[in-house]
Predict the 3D structure of the following.
Amino acid sequence: MPVTDPISDMLARIHNATRVSAAAVEMPASQQKVALAELLRNEGFISSFETKSLGSPQQKMRIVLKYGPKGERVIQGLKRISRPGLKVYRPSKKVPRVFGGLGISIISTSKGLMTDRQARKSNIGGEVVAQVW
């Protein structure tokens, strides 16, 4: 069954996997999902990710989740902000902060996906895709 919002599907899979303390989660891959996973890895929310082709046109992506030394979740929450029915755009001066900088807002800009800090530094606004804390 086709998914109408693949980014929400990705965030829901990560959220559900962290709730049951799963080591990894698999999902269909796309360029935007790979860019989002790379951003999460660079910010320290996930350990790693990999894409693999299974001989079919559809690629799979495997995300290895990250936990603290006592098994506590690194990703406490995920929230999809902009969705297909309601796009949320913000200029560079009004890009939202998450918990005073403890989390990140993921912004889709003309230069690709970036965090709220990178968008403010580059003076670029865009679509607020999601927030992670």
